[in-house]
Amino acid sequence: MINISIITIGDELLIGQVVDTNSAWMAQELNKAGIRVKKRVAVGDVWDEIWKALDEESANADVILITGGLGPTADDITKTLLCKYFGGKLITDEAALENVRYLFESVFKRPLTGRNIKQAEVPDVCTVLQNKRGTAPGMLFRKNGKIFVSMPGVPHEMQGMMS
User: Fold this and answer.
1) Contacts of 24 by beta carbon, 8 Å cutoff, 6+ apart
2) Measured between alpha carbons, how far is 16 from 14 in angstroms, rounded to an integer?
3) 67 has which bridge partners?
4) Does the pTM exceed 0.90?
């Protein structure tokens, strides 16, 4: 049987500003598919806490699903941390950049800023999961026989990626 852990990232989850609907939705969908979630963990936007959660969950699970921390704000450190955790460097994914450009020019009707362009940066050691519902692409990593999937924390974006 495959063991799955879910890690949700964000200070807003820990202070009750936002209710963690992501892990509940993910667990329900996985349960429908006959897959049991072994553990759910919430951590803040703190480097050491995220790193520790990755280490601990990968010691006990085959697949680690991660949501949150991929946004363009200063507290969103997950992408940089994943880059270091998996031994890569940040590069611009051209398909993700095209998606960001399309969203800002055609959907949001707002100018594209440098901060928005950074959303298309991903570690060069991941498989990029395109996000047609938002600007932050998902990322799939493999390490020591484990699979890690990092997805946006915005619920409808994560749900689109999971589906």
Assistant:
1) none
2) 6
3) 8, 151
4) yes
